[in-house]
Each structure stands twice: as structure tokens, then as C-alpha cells.
Design a protein that fits this description.
Layout: H1 17-25, H2 34-41, H3 45-49, H4 55-70, H5 81-97, H6 102-107, H7 114-130, H8 135-157, H9 169-179
């Protein structure tokens, strides 16, 4: 006969951002509920609500951690900006793809965490600026880069057919980065 071990008496471990994010990342984020996450953490859902107000709050914490993981430690330069962005795209590919449901969540319309999203935005815009783009062009290039990578990853991880055979992220990133201008296009083409 197997005896159950008694639970130790006293207060359970305090929750922190890392514990909540680690437990959430072990779940399928498309179906994650506050109650499921609380159970995974071994706390009541009311204890979890003291940390985050709702499911969006969980995603805010996850976004903070994900942005910390994907941003390259180095700063882009005029000669390294494409390599810097390629590194960022591949880190997004690896980190977002490692968590079931995360790429699809990020690709779907939702409220973004202003702190982590702002940090990612500012670093990417800076990469285009050091490459010689005007502030307006850097902003447009950020939009194309961010939307392109996130939508590709979301489509891939949602199981959408991205063409015959296996879609190659390396080809996508190469074409995307070669196509992003660092200066305004000339007006040689009629509208």
C-alpha cells in the first residue's frame, strides 16, 4: 500500500514573475485559464489574481520574458543591422515556436504589453535608423519587419500551409531583409 506524503505545513512559496511565466509556458497558451495556471502553480486562483488581474496580465508577464529572451545583447551598427535583425528574427522563431500557442497568440490581434512591445519597437527602429533610414522610413520598416515575422510564425505554428513542402524560415528572412529599404524609394514608378 502506497502512503501519501503529508504536505508540509506553513506558507507555500511566494509567487513571482518567473514562477508564473514558467508555469504558463509549460501549458498550451491557446487554452490556458487562470484556474489551470493556479492549479499548475499549486496555489488558489485568488492567490494568482493578486499577481495578475486576468489572462491578459499573464500574457503581459510572458511578453516581458519573451522580449528579454529574443533581443540581441549587442547593439546594431551601420554594418551589422541586417545581421542584428536576422538574429532577432531567428530568436523569435525559436522562442515563439517552443511554446505551444504563443506564436498564434502574438499573430492574432490583441492588446500588446506597452513596456515590452515598446522596448522591441524601439530597438528595431534603432536598427533601421543606424542603417540610414529616416525616422519615418524606420517606422515603416519596423512595421513590415515585425508584422512579417510574427504573421509568418503564427501561420506556421497554426498549421497553415505556407506552400508546397516545408516552408523555410531562412528564405523568408533573407528575402524580407533584402527588401527592407533604408531610404525612401525613388518615384520612378507611376501609381
Amino acid at each position: 500500500m502506497v502512503q501519501k506524503q503529508a504536505r508540509p505545513q506553513g506558507r507555500p512559496a511566494r509567487l513571482n514573475r518567473e514562477m508564473i511565466v514558467a508555469a504558463a509556458l509549460e501549458s498550451n497558451l491557446q487554452t490556458l485559464t487562470m484556474r489551470d495556471l493556479a492549479a499548475r502553480l499549486g496555489v488558489t486562483h485568488s492567490a494568482l489574481y493578486r499577481w495578475v488581474a486576468d489572462r491578459d496580465g499573464i500574457f503581459d508577464l510572458i511578453s516581458e520574458v519573451m522580449v528579454e529572451r529574443i533581443l540581441p545583447a549587442s547593439e546594431p551598427t551601420a554594418s551589422s543591422w541586417r545581421d542584428w535583425l536576422r538574429d532577432l528574427a531567428w530568436k523569435m522563431h525559436d522562442e515563439f515556436g517552443a511554446v505551444p500557442g504563443y506564436a498564434a497568440h502574438v499573430a492574432a490581434p490583441h492588446r500588446h504589453n506597452p513596456a515590452s512591445f515598446g522596448l522591441l519597437h524601439d530597438r528595431v527602429v534603432h536598427a533601421f535608423t543606424v542603417a540610414g533610414a529616416s525616422p519615418a522610413m524606420a517606422q515603416q520598416s519596423w512595421f513590415v519587419f515585425g508584422l512579417g515575422v510574427v504573421q509568418w510564425l503564427g501561420a506556421q505554428h497554426a498549421g497553415h500551409d505556407l506552400g508546397s513542402g516545408t516552408a523555410r524560415f531562412d528564405l523568408f528572412v533573407d528575402v524580407l531583409l533584402r527588401g527592407l529599404p533604408t531610404r525612401e524609394p525613388t518615384s520612378d514608378h507611376p501609381c
